[in-house]
Write a structure and sequence with these properties.
This protein is mainly beta and 429 residues long. Helices cover 6% and strands 35% of the residues. The N terminus is likely disordered.
C-alpha cells in the first residue's frame, strides 16, 4: 500500500465550472489536460519560484516483479509541494529481462498503456513519446501518431516530424525532435539521435525522402506512408510549417500510390484508408509536389528509407533529453510543475530507470523538467529523457502470479489516456 503524502501548501477546493482544485496560495490547478505536460496554455500561471532540485528522495515501498526488475514508490518535494510517484529499476543484464516498444497495431492509432502492455505480455511499462492528440483545422483529424522516431525489434516504424511541428515542452538548446532513448544492438541503454535517410527514384524524378509515417512533413518535402501507418487520413502531413505547427495546410499537394514498385495512381487529394502490404503512398507538398506530379501510372519507382545515427538501436522511442552525464541540460523548459514520465540509464547503460511522478493534486504537485532531471540523477541515472506527461503519465505493472498489469500511479485525468506508444519491460524465464 502506497503511503500518502499530504501537501501542507495546498488545499483542495473545486472552483466554479469545475476548473480544478485551488492551491493554498490562491493559484488554481487547471482541470483540463493538454497534449502532455509541456503543452498547457496556463502552465505559467503558477507564480512559483524557480527550482532545479527536488528534496531528499525516499523510497516508500519496494516490490520485486522478476529477477532484476524492482518496482518502487517514492516521495520527495518540489517547487509545487510534496511529490509522489513510481520508479521501475531494471537490471538489463539480468537473465530473461528485455525492454521494447509498446505500440498499437498501427502508427496512427492510440491505446492505453495497460492494453498495450497486456497485448505484448509486458511485465511493466510507462507511456512514451508526445503525440498529435488535437487538431483545430476544419476537416483535419488528429492522427494519434507520435512526434519522434520509433524503432521496434530493429525495424524503423517512423521518422521525426520537424522541430516546429512537435508537441511537448520546448527543446533544450542543441537537441531536436530526432532525439531518442532506447536499447542498442549490444543490449545497452543509450540516448541517441535518429535521422531519416532515403530517396524516391525513377527515370522522371529523384527526390530525398523527408518523411516516414509522420503526421507532419517538412515544407517542400515528400514522405512515404506504409502499411504500418494505418487507415487514418494523411492530410495532417501537409499542414503547418517547419516553425509553426498551427499554420494553415498547404494548397500545393499531391499523393502518389506505388504498388510493388510501380506507380498506380497520381492525384491531388491527400487521402485516407488502409495501405496494403507491398504498397507505398507518397505525399508531397510545395516543391516536392511539383516534382511528384511528373510521375505517370506505370512508371517504376524505388523508395528506400532507413533511420541513421551513431547508435544502431534495437528499440527506440522519441523523447526530450533532460539529463546527460549526470547533469541536467541547460535551457530546460521552466513551465510546470506537472505530472511527468521519464526514462533514463545508468551504470554504463546496464541499468534502466522508468519514472512516473504524479501531479495536479493535493497529494502530489508534480515536477518541473529541471526537478525531473535532478530526481533521475538522484535515482542513479546518468542520461535521461522526458516523455509525454500530464494526463498521459501512466505506470503499469503486474505482480508475480498475476495475468494482467494494473495501473500503479494516479493519472491526473482520473483514468488512463490512450497514447501513441510506450516503453515495456519483459521477462521470460
Amino acid at each position: 500500500m502506497r503511503r500518502l503524502v499530504v501537501a501542507a501548501v495546498m488545499v483542495v477546493a473545486v472552483g466554479a465550472g469545475g476548473a480544478g482544485p485551488v492551491r493554498a496560495d490562491g493559484q488554481r490547478w487547471p482541470g483540463v489536460d493538454g497534449a502532455g505536460s509541456g503543452e498547457r496554455p496556463d502552465a505559467r500561471e503558477f507564480a512559483l519560484a524557480p527550482s532545479r532540485a527536488v528534496g531528499p528522495l525516499r523510497f516508500t515501498s519496494s516490490e520485486r516483479l522478476a529477477p532484476g526488475v524492482v518496482a518502487r514508490t517514492f516521495a520527495t518535494t518540489g517547487v509545487g509541494g510534496p511529490v509522489r510517484g513510481d520508479l521501475l529499476d531494471v537490471d538489463l543484464r539480468a537473465p530473461g529481462v528485455r525492454v521494447g516498444l509498446l505500440a498499437p497495431p498501427k502508427v496512427a492509432a492510440r491505446r492505453t498503456v495497460s492494453a498495450m502492455a497486456d497485448a505484448r505480455g509486458a511485465l511493466a511499462g510507462v507511456n512514451g513519446d508526445f503525440f498529435n492528440i488535437t487538431e483545430a483545422r476544419p476537416g483535419v483529424v488528429a492522427t494519434g501518431s507520435s512526434s519522434g522516431p520509433a524503432v521496434d525489434a530493429g525495424r524503423p516504424l517512423k521518422g521525426a516530424v520537424p522541430d516546429g511541428q512537435r508537441f511537448g515542452p520546448a527543446l533544450p538548446p542543441g537537441t531536436s525532435s530526432e532525439a531518442v532513448i532506447g536499447i542498442g544492438a549490444d543490449g545497452r541503454g543509450r540516448l541517441g539521435r535518429l535521422r531519416l535517410a532515403g530517396t524516391i527514384r525513377s527515370k522522371r524524378v529523384t527526390l530525398p525522402l523527408r518523411g516516414l509515417n509522420q503526421y507532419a512533413l517538412p515544407v517542400d518535402g515528400a514522405g512515404a506512408f506504409t502499411h504500418d501507418w494505418g487507415s487514418v487520413s494523411r492530410r495532417r502531413a501537409v499542414c503547418g510549417t517547419d516553425t509553426a505547427r498551427n499554420a494553415p495546410c498547404s494548397t500545393n499537394t499531391v499523393e502518389v500510390t506505388v504498388r510493388r514498385g510501380v506507380v498506380a495512381k497520381v492525384g491531388g487529394e491527400v487521402g485516407a484508408g488502409p495501405i496494403p502490404l507491398g504498397t507505398t503512398v507518397l505525399v508531397g507538398r510545395e516543391e516536392a509536389a511539383d516534382a511528384l506530379r511528373r510521375l505517370r501510372p506505370g512508371d517504376r519507382v524505388a523508395v528506400t528509407h532507413r533511420l541513421t545515427g551513431p547508435v544502431r538501436f534495437r528499440f527506440a522511442v522519441g523523447g526530450v533529453p533532460v539529463l546527460r552525464d549526470g547533469e541536467p541540460l541547460k535551457g530546460l523548459d521552466p513551465r510546470g510543475p506537472a505530472p511527468r514520465t521519464a526514462a533514463g540509464f545508468g551504470r554504463g547503460g546496464h541499468r534502466m530507470y522508468l519514472v512516473v511522478a504524479d501531479g495536479r493534486s493535493a497529494e502530489s504537485g508534480g515536477l518541473t523538467l529541471a526537478e525531473l532531471a535532478d530526481l533521475l540523477a538522484k535515482a542513479g541515472a546518468d542520461d535521461a529523457v522526458n516523455l509525454d506527461g500530464g494526463g498521459s503519465s501512466t505506470f503499469v505493472a503486474r505482480s508475480l502470479g498475476e495475468d494482467a498489469v494494473t495501473v500503479r500511479n494516479t493519472p491526473s485525468a482520473g483514468a488512463q489516456r490512450a497514447v501513441a506508444n510506450g516503453i515495456g519491460v519483459f521477462h521470460r524465464p
